[in-house]
């Protein structure tokens, strides 16, 4: 649920240099916007996929230490960040 005083996340084009990525958590893909908490190389980030025709639009946050990424993830789910 979106909070009125939410913090705005900065979204970037996906970084192409990541080899293997582990999905730690995700939101339901039944929604127009799907979020994933991902881990790669000892850091974590959030990927946002907006379902759109003809292809989905994908954006990512910058990388954080894993614990900090978990805090941001929970804030995103609570509507404290967007």
Write structural notes for this entry:
With 82 residues, this protein is an alpha+beta fold. The protein has one domain (1-82). The chain is built from one helix and five strands, in the order E-E-E-E-E-H. It has one helix spanning 66-77; strands at residues 22-26, 33-40, 43-50, 57-60, 64-65. Strands 1, 2, 3, 4 and 5 form a five-stranded antiparallel beta sheet that branches. A hairpin with a 2-residue loop joins strand 2 and strand 3 (43-50).
User: How many discrete domains?
Assistant: 1
Query: How do the SSEs run, as a string of H and E?
Result: EEEEEH
Structural class: alpha+beta
Low-pLDDT segments: none
The percentage of residues in β strands lies in 25-35%
The total of beta strands comes to 5
Global shape: globular
Distance N to C terminus: 10 Å
Indicate the percent of residues in helices.
10-25%
- The value of Rg in angstroms is 12 Å
Mean pLDDT: 91
Q: How many helical stretches?
A: 1
Major sheet summary line: 5 strands, antiparallel
Q: What's the quick description here?
A:
With 82 residues, this protein is an alpha+beta fold.
């Amino acid at each position: 649920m979106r909070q009125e005083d939410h913090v705005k996340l900065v979204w970037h084009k996906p970084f192409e240099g990541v080899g293997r990525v582990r999905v730690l958590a995700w939101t339901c893909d039944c929604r127009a916007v799907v979020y994933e908490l991902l881990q790669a190389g000892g850091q974590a980030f959030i990927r946002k996929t907006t379902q759109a025709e003809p292809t989905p639009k994908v954006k990512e946050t910058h990388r954080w230490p894993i614990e900090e990424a978990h805090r941001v993830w929970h804030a995103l789910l609570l509507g404290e960040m967007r």
